[in-house]
Amino acid sequence: MQPNPAANRALLTLLVTAGGLYLLYLLAPILTPFLLAAALAYLCDPLVDRLEVHKLNRTLATSLVLLGLLLAFVLLALILAPLVQAEARLLMNQLPLALDWVQQTLLPWVEKTFGIDLMQDQAQLGDWLKAQLGQGQFTAYLPTLGEGGLAVLGFLVNLVLVPVVTFYLLRDWDRILAHLVGWLPRPVAGKTIEIAREVDVVLAEFVRGQIAVILVMAVFYSAGLWLAGLDYALAVGLVAGVLVFVPYLGVIVGLLLGSLAGLMQHGELTALIPVWAVFGLGQVLEGMVITPRLVGERVGLHPVAVIFALMAFGQLFGFFGVLLAIPASAALLVGLRHLKQQLD
Question: What distance in Å separates the CA atoms of residue 227 and residue 246, rounded to the nearest whole number?
Answer without folding.
Answer: 26
